[in-house]
Amino acid sequence: MFVASNFLFSLAKILHIIFTVFYWLILIRALISWVNPDPSNAIVRFLFVVTEPVLYPIRKLFLSRFHIGVDISPIIAFLIIKFLGYFVVSSLLEAADRLR
Question: How many domains does the chain have?
């Protein structure tokens, strides 16, 4: 059972890293959007390509229902990422601990 426990522990840690990286990428994209970035810049393109698959569905869902003049999709993405981080990672860590 220690193999399954170690697998779940490792999976939880990797997911935690992925959620943290996505959190920071979305934050950087939101901050950069305030200064009207050059769309041909490689960093701006990378941030757009990586974060848009996460932000677009949120933006489409909320902007179609609520007509707010501000894009709140990064805030909602932060909340979703934090929820998944707490729920999924904590659940996996607890499951790994029970298997030991």
Answer: 1
C-beta separation of 47 from 61 below 8 A: no
pLDDT at 63 over 80: no
> Does residue 6 contact residue 93 with C-beta atoms inside 8 Å?
no
- The SS3 of residue 72 is coil
Is the C-alpha dihedral spanning 84, 61, 38, 48 positive or negative? Answer: positive
Query: Which residues, other chains included, contact 100 with Cβ-Cβ below 8 Å and sequence gap of 6+?
Result: 1, 2, 5
Q: What's the chain's Rg over C-alpha atoms?
A: 17
Q: Considering the entire predicted model, what is its pTM?
A: 0.85
The DSSP 8-state label assigned to residue 38 in this structure reads: -
**DSSP 8-class letter at 70:** S
Chain center to CA of 36: 23
pLDDT, mean of residues 43-72: 86
Residue 20's domain spans which residues?
2-99
